[in-house]
Design brief:
The structure is a single chain. By secondary structure, the chain is α+β, with helices and mostly antiparallel strands. 27% of the residues lie in helices and 37% in strands. The protein contains 6 helices and 8 strands, in the order H-H-H-H-H-H-E-E-E-E-E-E-E-E. Strands 1, 2, 3, 4, 5, 6, 7 and 8 form an 8-stranded antiparallel beta sheet that branches. A hairpin with a 2-residue loop joins strand 5 and strand 6. It is elongated and about 65 Å long.
């Protein structure tokens, strides 16, 4: 690994995972077959990690190597500002991070929108904060009131109908494809 890349990875997350599971360094070492000294140095970011080591430690926690690497690289928080726009009867504020789009929406009664936004292969969650809406999918229709939510496959044709002035939180989660 290049020094700049190593500086951006924080493997103290291994310590956090180990402590969360109530494991000592000795117990983790026995579980993954990596020496205590290598684990200790890795937790203190004193050694570059080899791919084999990353894989074995990840498996000890029931993770993939890419999951562990992602945790090591995402220790810092990511701050963004919302963008505002209008689509059909909805006024949206949208925030996007890798794998997730979050929408805050308001709409007046009587409006409707079919397949509201361009979707990838996502799960969609709609949580009604205020008012009432109906979501129609190919073979079903759901009426939701404040405090209720619905999760569905966003690739399905769907329509939002606003039954009462409404405020919603809509989340698109990218589906994970693991083979």
């Amino acid at each position: 690994m290049q020094p700049a890349l190593l500086d951006s990875l924080d493997f103290s997350v291994v310590r956090d995972l180990r402590k969360r599971e109530g494991l000592t360094l000795d117990a983790l070492s026995a579980r993954c077959g990596i020496s205590i000294s290598v684990l200790s140095k890795l937790e203190r970011n004193q050694n570059p990690v080899e791919l084999e080591t990353l894989y074995r430690i990840a498996r000890a926690f029931g993770l993939s190597a890419s999951d562990l690497l992602s945790l090591a690289e995402s220790v810092a928080a990511h701050r963004k500002s919302a963008t505002r726009y209008r689509s059909g009867p909805f006024d949206f504020e949208k925030l996007s991070f890798q794998g997730i789009d979050c929408f805050h929406a308001t709409a007046k009664a009587g409006g409707s929108l079919t397949h509201p936004e361009a979707h990838g292969d996502d799960h969609e969650i709609c949580w009604v904060l205020r008012g009432r809406i109906a979501i129609t999918l190919p073979r079903e229709r759901h009426e939701l009131a404040a405090g209720e939510a619905l999760k569905f496959d966003a690739m399905l044709e769907h329509t939002y109908e606003i039954l009462e002035d409404a405020e919603l939180t809509i989340v698109h989660l990218t589906k994970q494809h693991r083979f």
